[in-house]
Amino acid sequence: RNMYKSKEENQVLVLLSPNYFLKMVWSHKQKMKGIFTENICETFDSFIMRVLDKQLHRAATLAVIGLDTYTREKGLYSPVKRPKNSESNRVEDSESWVSRELGLTCADLDEVQVALQLQTHTTVWFLDDWQQFADHVATLTKAIARCPFKKQTEKMTFSFCPDGTWSTGVKVDKDGKGLLKLWKKQLQQLNRITQPVAMAIAQAYPAPKLLLRAYRQCTSEWEKQNLVSEVKVYAAGKRVDRRVGPDISRRLYIFMTSENSDIVLDKSG
């Protein structure tokens, strides 16, 4: 009998050619200027969404091999730097040209890396050759393989951690009394979830298991992300014209369903 089970991980590794990567950097730069170029080359946003199959809880890593070699061989690279700043009399290394043909500098690459990390939780590897790529793949595979063991270790209880209590002081009796209060406290750990918002969500879904069940019953990713957005919020015991909203709803969905412990819930940082 086969005792092994397969599981699709949330980590996605994508190999990009230097040419295609630079074109998407150029497209990102044009987008920041308000110029849309998706008919010429897709943007990073559309590319990541396509790669992740619109599943935002997954995390992508882009690997670009031989970017420096490519730009030099194609004659795109020039070590020309920005003139010295008249006030500081320093040369800005970040303004070194990566591609004069596309008008891209090192600063543009840095900007794209930061934007990808904050907006889509995507990291970029710039590798010299295939050996470096193989080493990184081996490291990533090893880290993923160790995740189940680490999770099992984290579930182990300790003798100095008494049952039925929590660090915030919420006591849970053996009959379950206090669980609702604990659920509200847990919701308030998320940024910008106030006590009235937490109470409204807990009233709609009195337990985390009920919220997870509701997510599973949704038929689309959009429906899951906006599940609690229309939940009305009470203030001073009265229902006011205020709702949880799509941003909190999206962050709560990611928080409840993502298995990536490093994911950034706030896109704005």
Automatic annotation (TrEMBL):
Q: Which molecular function GO terms apply here?
A: crossover junction DNA endonuclease activity; DNA binding
* Localization of this protein: Nucleus
**Keyword Nucleus appears in the UniProt entry:** yes
Q: What is this protein called?
A: ERCC4 domain-containing protein
Q: Which family does it belong to?
A: Belongs to the EME1/MMS4 family.
Q: Name one GO biological process term.
A: replication fork processing
Q: Name one Pfam family in it.
A: EME1-MUS81_C
